[in-house]
Design goal:
The structure holds three protein chains of three kinds.
Chain A lengths: L7 E8 L7 E8 L2 H12 L7 E6 L11 H5 L23
Antiparallel strand pairs in A: 1-2, 1-3
Chain B lengths: L2 H23 L7 H29 L5 H7 L9 H4 L5 H22 L5 H30 L2 H14 L11 H8 L10 H15 L22 H15 L6
Helix pairs in contact in B: 1-2, 1-8, 2-3, 2-6, 5-6, 5-7, 5-9, 6-7, 6-9
Chain C lengths: L3 H12 L12 H26 L8 H26 L5 H9 L16 H22 L5 H29 L3 H20 L11 H6 L7 H17 L11 E3 L4 E3 L5 H11 L3 H14 L1 H20 L1
Antiparallel strand pairs in C: 1-2
Helix pairs in contact in C: 2-3, 3-6, 5-6, 5-7, 5-9, 6-7
Classes of the chains: A alpha+beta, B mainly alpha, C mainly alpha.
Chain lengths: 96, 251, 313
């Protein structure tokens, strides 16, 4: 087991403004979470890009597989009744 | 001109100027790319603080003097930075040790300076305290990391502190200039920072498993009175190079 | 031999400008091309810190010093964005650094040239970053998602770099006689290296065609080079500077500048490792890496101890 490496890989999410969702901006290497948080601040918010940061170890991110994407995402395609535009409302009826 | 205030600003400005210069020397030599970027950030903050103090000092003196004139065209004995800032970048342990001790000092200094009645100094301090709070968190983290990391890192950081400890007494050296300014609430005496500084350093050293070196006061003269280490001359030769070589040029 | 159906589907995605993401199927050659290109781009940013860092401690004004410091910090940042993009392809940063130190990986040969005067810092910002911008703006459209996103981020930051350099050039061009000579001399030395940054003519580039087909590259080397030259000439002439090329002339028919043939001997020499700074740039990088080993080991060891403690607690 090597005693020297570049550290753990972390994914970084920055909240651009209060109330907005955090957005993935990239990754970085750091040896522990305190270092990772500071590195995220130094690397990804130098130009006032955000007011909040989340960091997650890359190995903890679980990602959907693109090979599954047909089974995973397409079935939502034909359930258009989930969208409000599917429904006919008589003219003149308001607030609905 | 308020000569006391002018001198006081030179001292604060020169500490930032020389310390940030040492950091600039380290650019691209860091142990880890993220750390290289982080240290440079600290250097940028310090340079900004230095620029603000030197500009104020220049304005106080008047006669069209600029912060660049002060930064690049004084004689060595006219710089008023303390010896601790002049210590060269022997290795990462020395860089961190020097930085940590200065960060603790700056933290308590700016915390007090925010409340002075001089609006420019309190303004500089209000911005600087945010920067230095971060610097101190950073360097504290690393001192602890190195203290407890490996046997080698523990030895190296302890040795670095041992070797530069003799320069820390100058942090609290106080003269009439400082006392006069403090009386008028325009400045802060360095001696008033000692208790907090010692408390914080002790706290971090305990967390890091390090021991406080026994203080060796050095008495050959202090940087804040214009008497420097052998290192400053070389540093200034490099820093002032273009201004000396082309005295009439504007950059 | 890869499944032809998969290859076909992959090409359809590319042709439809759908981004390829890390978990998607991709041809092995596509993956390898990107591993090489992105990591070498990252190395270039980091090695580039050296020629610029060379004048940081001699920056002649506080403004110039802080701007240059921020710029070099950005280069480190760009290196980081790119290493992280490259790592999504399944190769660790440790491996990339090993390849760099072993001399297997390349980086932009322009950074093997020395910065001999303060004017060189201006020339680098103006010309080298100017060329990089032309290349990177085009690369924003690259097919690989993480690389494309890194390019978008980098492009936002890069235009400050070019302005920083040009500001220095303007100051010198409008300064004393010696300053004017200094900046003209810098332009004389950096012009051709900046043009060579776009690589060989497409006909002679081994990777070009496949790279364009897979939209790793969106435009050819020669197209990008011409765009850079066309943009830059007036910026120098406006300041009374001359470019070191007697054949440089605006062609009314093509609406482009004509220019002299490039000295490819010098180009290949530098690419192969015999440029003026090649060895010492790597020596510097390797030394920093080796000197820092004990620090990284300490950070690693400390993290392990923390984890152990939290498991017990």
């Amino acid at each position: 087991m090597s005693t020297d490496n570049q550290g753990i890989l972390w994914e970084v999410f920055v909240q651009p403004k209060s109330g907005k969702p955090h957005k993935h901006v990239g990754s970085l290497h750091a040896y522990d979470k305190e270092m990772a948080m500071k590195a995220a601040r130094d690397l990804y918010t130098r130009r006032q890009e955000g007011c909040g940061i989340w960091i997650v170890k890359a190995e903890d991110v679980i990602s959907s597989q693109s090979t599954d994407s047909e089974a995973f995402f397409d079935p939502a395609d034909d359930k258009i009744y989930r969208h409000p535009t599917f429904y006919k409302i008589p003219d003149g009826v308001k607030h609905i | 001109m308020n000569t006391d205030l002018h001198t006081y600003c030179l001292r604060l400005g020169d500490n930032g100027l020389i310390l940030s210069h040492r950091i600039a020397e380290y650019c691209s030599k860091g142990p880890h790319l993220e750390e290289d970027l982080a240290i440079t950030n600290v250097g940028l903050d310090l340079l900004g603080q230095a620029e603000s103090f030197l500009k104020y000092a220049a304005d106080i003196k008047g006669g069209g003097l600029t912060e660049d004139d002060l930064a690049f065209r004084r004689k060595e004995h006219e710089y008023l930075c303390i010896h601790l800032t002049e210590i060269p970048n022997i290795d990462y342990a020395y860089i961190l040790a020097r930085q940590f001790l200065m960060d603790v000092y700056h933290f308590y200094l700016y915390k007090k300076l925010v409340t002075t009645e001089d609006p420019i100094i309190s303004g500089i301090a209000a911005k600087a305290i945010k920067e230095v709070t971060y610097h101190l968190q950073r360097s504290t983290g690393w001192v602890i990391r190195l203290g407890h990391g490996t046997d080698e890192s523990g030895q190296r950081i302890q040795e670095a502190f041992n070797n530069i400890w003799m320069y820390t007494d100058e942090l609290f050296e106080t003269d009439d200039i400082e006392k006069n300014l403090e009386k008028k609430n325009l400045g802060v005496t360095s001696s008033s920072l000692k208790k907090d500084w010692e408390g914080k350093v002790k706290e971090v050293f305990i967390s890091a498993g390090l021991s406080i070196p026994s203080i060796t006061k050095h008495s050959l003269g202090y940087g804040k009175y214009g008497i420097h280490t052998e290192y400053l001359g070389y540093l200034l030769a490099e820093m002032q190079h273009l201004n000396l070589l082309y005295p009439d040029a504007k950059w | 031999m890869e499944d032809p159906k998969k290859l076909e589907e992959f090409q359809e995605k590319i042709d439809a400008d759908i981004k390829i993401e890390p978990k998607d199927w991709m041809p092995e050659k596509y993956r390898q091309s990107l591993v090489r290109q992105i990591s070498q781009h990252a190395h270039s940013e980091v090695i580039g810190m050296q020629p610029e860092g060379n004048w940081l401690t001699r920056a002649p004004s506080l403004r110039a010093k802080k701007i240059l410091m921020a710029k070099i910090q950005d280069e480190a940042g760009h290196g980081l964005y790119l290493y992280c993009a490259a790592e999504t392809l399944g190769v660790s940063r440790d491996q990339f650094l090993n390849w760099l130190h072993e001399g297997i990986a390349k980086y932009s040969s322009v950074f093997n040239y020395p910065t001999l005067t303060w004017a060189d810092i201006g020339a680098i910002g103006w010309l080298v970053d100017g060329a990089a911008i032309v290349n990177q703006v085009s690369l924003q459209g690259t097919s690989y998602g993480p690389y494309s996103r890194a390019m978008v981020r980098i492009c936002k930051e890069e235009s400050f770099h070019q302005r920083q350099g040009y500001e220095i050039v303007v100051t010198l061009a409008q300064g004393t006689k010696e300053q004017k000579q200094m900046v003209q001399d810098a332009l004389n030395r950096w012009w051709w290296p900046s043009i060579m940054m776009f690589g060989p003519h497409d006909a002679e580039s081994a990777h070009s065609n496949q790279s364009l087909k897979w939209r790793i590259k969106r435009e050819s080397n020669d197209e990008l080079r011409q765009r850079y030259i066309d943009k830059t000439i007036h910026q120098g002439e406006h300041l009374g500077l001359t470019f070191p090329d007697s054949n440089l002339k605006w062609n009314k028919k093509t609406n482009h500048y004509d220019f002299s043939p490039i000295d490819w001997d010098e180009f290949w020499n530098v690419v192969k490792g015999n440029g003026p700074g090649n060895r010492m740039r790597l020596v510097h990088h390797k030394k920093a890496h080796d000197d820092g080993a004990w620090v990284r080991e300490a950070a690693l060891a400390y993290e392990k101890k923390q984890n152990k403690n939290s498991l017990i607690a």
